[in-house]
Amino acid sequence: MTMRQYFNYQNNQLVAEGVPLADIAEQYGTPCYVYSRAALTSGFQQFAEALKGHEHQICYAVKANPNLAILNVFARLGAGFDIVSGGELQRVLAAGGEARKVVFSGVGKSVAEMRMALEAGILCFNVESAPELDRLNEVAGSLGKVAAISLRVNPDVDAKTHPYISTGLKQNKFGVAYTEAVSLYCKAAALPNLRLTGMDCHIGSQLTETSPFIAAIEKVLVLVDALASMGIVLEHLDLGGGLGICYDKETPPAIADYVAALLGALKGRTQKLILEPGRVLVGNAGVLLTRVEYIKPGCEKNFAIVDAAMNDLMRPALYDAYHGILPVVQENHPVQNYEIVGPICETGDFIGHARELAVAPQSLLAVMSAGAYGMSMSSNYNTRPRACEVMVDGDKVHLIRARETVQQLFAGESIIA
Ligand code: LLP
User: Fold this and answer.
1) What ranges do the domains of the chain cover?
2) Would the pTM count as exceeding 0.90?
3) To which H or E segment does residue 139 belong?
4) pLDDT tens figures, 395-408
5) Which of 159, 242, 317, 408 is deepest in the core (most CB within 10 A)?
6) Which residues line ligand 1 (CB under 6 A)?
7) Are the CB atoms for 353 and 270 separated by under 8 Å?
8) Which superfamily is assigned to 105-277 in CATH?
């Protein structure tokens, strides 16, 4: 079953696993992110099952949703983690993740972050530029350590996704240019405090076809072979994340089919395979609960003003992304066409356009597919405390992040004399 099916209707009520979302809204208030542990577990197990028989490490991309409880669920299933900051490393360690299963991606790693990761003993740095090689070599040397590295190669393939989340084209800031990769590996091989262990690529996010992944693998393998012929033999291939989910009518490949396609393209190669899935593991495992504050008939459009806003879920405003919006309780109100908007003072503050819904003031709505890049991209714009987060596990509900208070928001500020 797809992960979204962990949220379904029973007797006109939207239920997460065994718990009515209306009960959660009652107890914890809104806006509130709700995750299903069973959905998280199912996604991870689909990867593990599909990769059985090939040496691998699934490194969950922390940025998709960094809540400690979520990291802990994955850590207990054996996950490693793909991090992009020292802060994410600290979260992984605090959640019980193992440093030796961590890969560190990102174009701007600071000296302090490199030190922290070396001291923790991570699996690999995914290096994205020549100056980063030099910096890492120096930092590792100063600590008397050797850093395991792979170079993130930009394979120059079109991921056919939203331009803001496409990363594998040569005009993007990510990775090292395909044509320079071999010479950079040679440069790295000559640096005493680096150990070349792998090759990495990540071409974008929310991909709904396998063909760009396969095109990337084929290009990566050409480089792997070129290096091997020069005596640089790599132990692992990291093919990044990027597998898309269904928000609306997309039909991305199932996890099993995606993995089978990757393994097929690897044509019996024995290198350990690292993957960095984010969205596909958490996206449809979470919803954002919100309550209708006002119904405001307009000249041209009717507005349903809800208590969640672009600060809680930025994806619609930033990418014009679509999220399904479902009534938490199927009620007998007149069905109307609504703009679902938040209270923030910006026209871009919308959650959904032109939705046919039977709602009234106080109705609860579930914004679907909100588990990935929802809470993790939230902000305090308009001095809005961030939403709470809960995790449903069977018939139990756990608060995994308390709602922020306004006092917390300005605790670090001071008035000058
Ligand atoms: N690895 C690297 C190096 C990445 O940059 C990313 C995501 C991932 C793995 C995980 O990709 P995923 O499996 O989640 O597609 N905020 C945007 C998505 C940004 C993705 C950034 N990189 C959104 O809400 O759609």
Assistant:
1) 3-36+283-409, 105-277
2) yes
3) helix 130-142
4) 999 999 999 999 99
5) 242
6) 61, 64, 82, 105, 165, 202, 205-206, 240-243, 276-280, 315, 319, 373, 377
7) no
8) Alanine racemase (3.20.20.10)
